[in-house]
Amino acid sequence: MKHIVTLADAVTAFESWMEPTAAELAAIEAEAPLLAAEVEELDTVIALMDRPANEVDTRRARRAHARVLAARAALANTGTGEAA
Question: Between 20 and 30 A from 33 (CA), which of 14, 24, 72, 82?
Answer without folding.
Answer: 14
